[in-house]
Write a structure and sequence with these properties.
The structure holds 2 protein chains of 2 kinds. Chain A has 17 helices and 24 strands. Chain A is an alpha/beta fold. Chain A has a 6-stranded mixed β-sheet with strand order 6-9-10-3-11-12, sandwiched between helices. In chain A, strands 18-21-22-15-23-24 form a 6-stranded mixed β-sheet, with helices on both faces. Chain A is globular, with a radius of gyration of 24 Å. In chain A, 46% of the residues are buried. By secondary structure, chain B is mainly alpha-helical. Chain B is globular and about 55 Å long. The chains are: A alpha/beta, B mainly alpha. The interface between A and B is medium-sized, with 31 and 23 residues.
């Protein structure tokens, strides 16, 4: 019998259909992937399960018995637990305190908190998930995002029956690996497999097809609010999944190269060093995509940020088309024809209160001026429309606020900003993170067009297939240094992953 | 419907306040003469609130505007007492305002002190300076040239017994300049981007520090302008006469912010905020209601307006 059975959910918001015929069936002891493009209805479905959104019609059953989830408290009582990418942790409390937050701490003499006892209990909860590398007394803020997530899962996992909650039976994980390194993701997967072995059901939402294929037992694909298919992962091809999600057929997952790389150097970096980076040197040629790979925080982002002056000064020299340039602030990077796409779209990329046009024009306002100081709004809107078309942005027009857009379309707005100008070199930090499959393909196609026009692209990514298929060469970083540079000719993902991790003997915990 | 109420609630509240006084004071409230009078009464607050809007667009505050207004008035009056002409005194006062504002800008943008703390510090410094240079005394009488004090009493005659006061014209000019700067120039667009997301703005090539520095300079300039208007109006200067301006100015901007969907300050909305405060003051005075009641009312209105507009915005 199914642990969770959802039948024909329908939900409309102000006339717009978010769900129309969504079905989902999760068994105990399985990892069930939920996939679909942004806007396919995954979030709404999860919100229904969480008791945040009430469906118009449809039914939910647990263990075959129909249930009503009217509030988050109901969801908790039914044994549902939710792990989101944005974690709600208390950073200045310890791991143990976070795990037992809001519950009674063990006491000594009735009044004093028994910290040792608390830590022991936390360690036991973590050990139950196979997590032994996190000291329970450590401040939450000092943990990596991946470890914070493991703590969060431990919090959900601990047997809460003493406090009257139902024990956790079904975990809903929404893009849990979005901000994790490959290593942290593997740790998370190990924990998820343990939860599965313990008989829990896991609904796993992710844009990363590879990890879904690795981790999940079955998958359900949503498109336009309706369930398109539920399949066993065994024997399923990736291309099939993509086709199910987007409903159209790709020749292959990545667009082909359009033109060869030129011999001219567009960007030269020599002996670049910061507090973290050590003596980084490389060249990018016109028409080339240079990939930057490595484990999370190995130096890929830092190199890009150092080149555009995002974090202040650095040692070493940067040259554009052979001419040395001095860049200490992002403003001079943009002025010299370097476009920068930061890693965190919402925190670093977008002004979400502003319109699409206002976001696109930000670095280019000086080109949109009449009489020396008046903003030419017509030209600004025109720029947003032109570039929006080029990046295949789906919107209601240049005046629409960016916060109303889906993740993929928001990223396209940041891209439109980057290609305005136009720049000679694009520095992209995780350009397809959290972006749906369709938008991802559009972005990759755009990169191909840009390089065909002779632009140089530096692409830092934790998405290994993206690097292997899109880049011409890849620099692998380790601990702030260039470990090696490889051509993507004949390179496979496994080999690149091995390079990122270093030698097989390298410490992994 | 509910969102319309949120957006227009403050405007509706303003209309209700006006209707209330119109009914309660039928003879004198809804007359051109009274409205011109209100416009003059609020002109100093208006100037400070308009330039305060510039820094609040970036999500910053300037608490020092009140003591800066006092200091600027004192500086001008001392210049007059030493025999300098009107324009010298005015230029000195505005120069002090600009410099004081830029000092706030340095502290906030380049030293990196929170605006609340930095301008709280300079509030005290400017106030102390005003007492220091004036010896704590009011400067009045023959020391103030009639050309200066006459300005606030002058105006453009419109009809019998009614004229458009010069101070109102000054406030209107400042309104236009600030509106143009914030809404029509790239400078203004950049300030709004900073207010929306400082880090994203910086990474997108906006000189965040320089703009914050300059914006505080403008706020100081506005405060000094208001200080001069005040000194002209009462034909004297004393080291505390601007002290009421700061809270009312911030309140006016807050009231205005409740009218924007994004919670962003806009100078036209600030004008509504200023008018609400001004009309309340004027109406309650005419009804001979104690001025402390006005304080209680204004405080309550601000809390109500901000609470109603943040309902539903900050869910979850």
């Amino acid at each position: 019998m199914s642990l969770l059975s959802i039948q024909d959910l329908e939900k409309s918001f102000a006339g717009a259909k978010a769900l129309g015929g969504a079905c989902l069936d999760v068994r105990a002891g399985e990892v069930h992937a939920l996939m679909g493009e942004n806007g396919a209805g995954k979030s709404t479905l999860i919100k229904v399960l969480a008791g945040v959104v009430k469906p118009d019609t449809g039914s939910i059953a647990i263990d075959g018995a129909p249930v009503a989830i009217g509030s988050p408290a109901d969801a908790l009582r039914l044994g549902l637990r939710f792990i989101h990418q944005e974690l709600s942790v208390v950073p200045h409390l310890s791991v143990a305190e976070n795990i037992f937050l809001g519950r009674d701490y063990p006491r000594r003499w009735g009044v004093m908190i028994d910290w040792d006892g608390l830590n022991r209990r936390a360690a036991a909860v973590l050990a139950g998930l196979g997590v032994t590398h996190i000291p329970p007394g450590r401040k939450m803020a000092r943990l990596s995002v991946g470890d914070q997530m493991l703590v969060k899962i431990a919090t959900a996992f601990q047997d809460a029956s003493v406090d009257g909650d139902a024990p956790a039976r079904l975990y809903v994980m929404d893009e849990p690996t979005a901000a994790l390194s490959a290593e942290e993701s593997q740790r998370l997967f190990a924990v998820i497999r343990r939860l599965r072995a313990a008989g829990a059901g896991i609904i796993y939402v992710s844009h990363r097809l590879d990890e879904v294929m690795e981790l999940a037992d079955r998958l359900t694909v949503l498109r336009d609010g309706a369930t398109v298919a539920t399949r066993d992962i065994a024997g399923l091809q990736k291309l099939e999944v993509i086709e199910l999600m987007i409903g159209r057929r790709f020749a292959e997952g990545y667009p082909p190269r359009l033109a060869p790389v030129s011999g001219e150097v567009a960007l030269g970096v020599e002996h670049l060093s910061t507090g973290y980076l050590q003596d980084v040197s490389f060249e990018v040629h016109k028409g080339e995509i240079l990939g930057l790979a490595g484990l999370e925080g190995a130096g890929q982002s830092e190199v890009i940020r150092a080149i555009v002056g995002a974090d202040g000064g650095h040692d070493g020299a940067v040259s554009l088309a052979g001419r040395p340039v001095r860049i200490e602030e992002p403003v001079s990077a943009w002025a010299k024809g370097l476009a920068f796409l930061p890693r965190e779209r919402r925190q670093e990329g977008l002004v979400s209160s502003a319109s699409i046009a206002g976001n696109v024009s930000l670095p280019h306002l000086d080109d949109l001026v009449r009489f020396g100081l008046v903003l030419d709004r017509a030209a600004e809107a025109e720029q947003a429309v032109d570039l929006g078309r080029k990046v295949k942005l789906k919107s209601k027009g240049p005046k629409q606020k960016v916060r109303e857009l889906s993740g993929g379309n928001q990223q396209k707005v940041v891209f439109a900003r980057a290609i305005a100008g136009p720049p000679e070199v694009l520095l992209l930090d995780e350009p397809t993170r959290g972006v749906d499959v369709g938008a991802r393909y559009d972005i990759h196609a755009l990169l191909r067009e840009l390089t065909a026009e002779g632009k140089a692209v530096v692409l830092a990514s934790s998405d290994l297939p993206e690097l292997v298929y899109m880049a011409d060469r890849i620099i692998v970083f380790r601990d702030g240094r260039v470990a090696t540079t490889v051509s993507t000719e004949g390179l496979d993902q496994a080999r690149l992953a091995a390079l990122c991790f270093g030698s097989p003997a390298a410490p992994s915990a | 419907m509910a969102s319309a109420l949120k957006t227009y609630g403050t405007l509706i509240g303003f209309v209700l306040v006006v209707l209330f006084f119109w009914i309660e004071i039928p003879d004198t409230f809804m007359t051109a003469k009274n409205w011109l009078n209100i416009s003059q009464q609020v002109s100093m607050l208006a100037v400070v609130a308009f330039t305060m809007t510039i820094v609040m667009v970036m999500g910053d505050f300037d608490l020092s505007v009140g003591s800066m207004a006092s200091l600027a008035g004192i500086v001008a009056a001392l210049a007059f007492r030493d025999g300098h002409g009107v324009w010298v005194g005015v230029a000195l006062a505005l120069g002090v305002g600009l410099l004081g504002g830029l000092l706030n800008g340095v502290l906030v943008a380049y030293v990196g002190i929170l605006p609340f703390v930095a301008t709280l510090g300079t509030l005290t410094v400017y106030s102390g300076l005003a007492f220091l240079v004036s010896g704590g005394k009011t400067i009045f009488g023959r020391d103030i040239p009639t050309a200066f004090s006459g300005f606030a009493r002058s105006g453009i005659p419109l009809a019998d017994m009614v004229s458009l006061p010069s101070l109102t014209i000054v406030a209107a000019v400042v309104l236009l300049v600030v509106w143009f700067t914030l809404e029509q120039t790239t400078f203004g667009r950049r300030l709004y981007a900073i207010g929306g997301n400082k880090e994203a703005a910086r990474l997108a090539g906006i000189r965040v520090r320089r703009l914050r520095f300059l914006a505080f300079g403008l706020s100081g300039l506005g405060a000094a302008t208001a200080g001069l208007m005040y000194a002209s109006r009462v034909a004297s200067a004393n080291p505390t006469q601007g002290s009421g301006l700061m809270l009312d100015a911030i309140a006016a901007v807050f009231l205005g912010m409740t009218m924007s969907e994004e919670g962003e300050p806009h100078v036209a909305a600030t004008l509504i905020g200023v008018l609400i405060l001004g009309v309340l003051g004027n109406g309650l005075t005419q009804m001979s209601i104690d001025s402390y009641v006005r304080e209680v009312l204004i405080g309550s209105i601000i809390v109500l307006a901000v609470a109603s507009s943040s309902l539903g915005k900050t869910k979850g």
